Amino acid sequence: MKGTYSAQTHFTFDQFDQDQIFVMNYNDQNGTRRVGLTISDRHHENIFDLVQRRDSIMKNLRDTAAATAAVRRALGGTPENPAVAERLYIGRDAAKNAILNMRDKLGRTRLRLVVDSLGAARIEFLDADGKVTNSLTGTGR
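The structure corresponding to this sequence follows.
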């Protein structure tokens, strides 16, 4: 369609014998832009072994929904120890906010620093369910 566009750039660094742990991302859909850096934790399992396990599952299951679910179960870790967990994100979101999200070992945001598109700053403390439990702003109490 004329007048619409999509632009993306993705640059990553891999953990030794593993996959992406440091990512620089740029995504723009018709002017709605998100750009940032992400740091993640990953299991120390060799990626070659993971790929072999994934390929074996995909080969033996013809139904793509079942295969996708089986791969997710086999390679996703556990709720207490995920195979990959985003730990830090710093960047600009689609609402033009500058943000820093710090996450726990399970990938849940626990601390967020925000400077919104109008310049107002806040610090948010979140519980394990993602609910803001305390917030500080530069406007006093």
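Helices lie at 47-60, 64-75.
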